[in-house]
Amino acid sequence: MASSTNMLPDKQFQCTICQQAFTDPVTTPCGHNFCQACIQNVWDSSEVCQCPACNKSFHTRPEISINIAFKELADTFRKIIACSSHLAAGSESKPLACRNCLICDRSSTTLLLILYKMCLL
């Protein structure tokens, strides 16, 4: 039986630079998402400013800001991972992150409801 963490759509919430769940996600002009610190570090250490995902070059360094809606989804994903990992370890009690998921059943957001149901696995 697959663990609940394997069933989560982790690639959508994972920075391709650090391979972790997004922290302060930003979107490049070409539409790719990265952690703000990750993309800034890549651009700071390179003479050419380009997207690490598609190699599109930018003449000037793009202005980037945190994608608030995507940050909220990534934060929810991070909580679900914490809950799923805790429950997979066999603990009877739910951690704070999992208890917080209980508010999702009042949400009309489909993704949050799906993540909430996965948290209960």
UniProtKB/TrEMBL annotation:
PROSITE patterns: ZF_RING_1, ZF_RING_2. It holds the Pfam family zf-RING_UBOX. Gene3D superfamilies: Zinc/RING finger domain, C3HC4 (zinc finger). One of its GO terms (molecular function) is zinc ion binding. The keyword Phosphoprotein does not apply. Residues 15-55 form the RING-type domain. The keyword Metal-binding applies. Keywords: Metal-binding, Zinc, Zinc-finger. This is RING-type domain-containing protein. It comes from Mola mola (Ocean sunfish).
